[in-house]
Amino acid sequence: MNIIINHIRSFNRRRLTRRHLKKTLVGARLWRPKRIYRRYMLAQSYYRPQLKMIKSWAFKDTEYSNFYYDLKILNIEHMTHAISVITNLEHKIIARYIEEIRTDDWLKKLILKNLKSSDYPKDTKVEFARRIGWYAIARAIKPKVIVETGVHNGVGACVLTRALMKNSEEGILGEYFGTDIDESAGQLLTSPLSDYGKILYGDSIKSLGKLNYTIDLFINDSDHSETYEQQEYEIVNEKLSSNAIILGDNSHVTDKLSKFSLKTNRKFIFIPEKPKDHWYPGAGIGVSYIHPQN
Ligand SMILES: C[S@@+](CC[C@H](N)C(=O)[O-])C[C@H]1O[C@@H](n2cnc3c(N)ncnc32)[C@H](O)[C@@H]1O
Prior knowledge:
By secondary structure, this protein is of the alpha/beta class. The chain has two domains: 2-58, no CATH class; 73-289, Rossmann fold (3-Layer(aba) Sandwich). The chain is built from eleven helices and seven strands. It has helices at residues 2-14, 18-27, 33-60, 73-87, 91-102, 105-117, 131-141, 155-169, 204-210, 226-237, 256-263; strands spanning 145-149, 175-180, 197-201, 215-220, 240-248, 267-272, 284-289. The chain has a seven-stranded mixed sheet with strand order 3-2-1-4-5-7-6, with helices on both faces. Strand 4 (215-220), helix 10 and strand 5 form a beta-alpha-beta unit. Helix 1 (2-14) packs antiparallel against helix 2, helix 7 (131-141) runs parallel beside helix 8 and helix 9 (204-210) packs parallel to helix 10 (226-237). The N and C termini lie far apart (59 Å). The site of S-adenosylmethionine has 18 residues, from helix 8 and strand 2.
């Protein structure tokens, strides 16, 4: 067994060809190498495309975190159905909102322009990843107040205020509040999107405690520790409107939002995220909502 493992390690280290590994293993004249080789290659075949993407990403790209990517078409289709169930709106309405944000060249140009004049790495593509789902929900439920904890450079803030801008064109006004501990956060949120909201600088829990508004859409995306996430849900609980939706950006790693939903008689759905043309395995959107029949 050790002989085989050493061969595989040396295969990885020396970047030898698959044929070489196969030849070496078969040459060992053991009963199992062929089988192990096949199993090893089968498992690797699931990850090979991502490993290839990692190589080109490491050399060409400048992003370190909060990656930009679009979603796989099938993922978008599943997301559309899930949001249609959550909001009790027809699939075609949600599909229209999703298409609206994915093809929003005005927004992409604005973000790109701001990225170029900021100190943030100058990535050339702007895609919204799971924030596409945040946008569709904000368009669907027409919230009067959106709160997003954790703004970072402000891509989520731009997407959410853009939804408010579109809602206002349909006669429904809304306001956005972002929270961030970092005073340089939100560089991308400029006029005219900044007319639809503002950023509250300082610790999220403190900002939420002071916020004197009824919240219709709450997005948790600040300190990603389990305890902090839970504290955010608890502090906003009494500020939520009767049909408020909570989106958790930590639900792919913790059960805090699903447990909070059970405790407060809410429904919970997790919408997984499948990045297109990116090595990142994807996070997802935890959605906590009140069932229309409740
Ligand atoms: C993952 S980023 C947010 C990404 C953003 N929502 C988006 O869509 O691009 C997390 C942000 O949370 C902020 N943060 C971390 N701990 C915080 C805290 N205790 N209070 C407020 N903001 C915090 C960080 O400064 C960082 O900008």
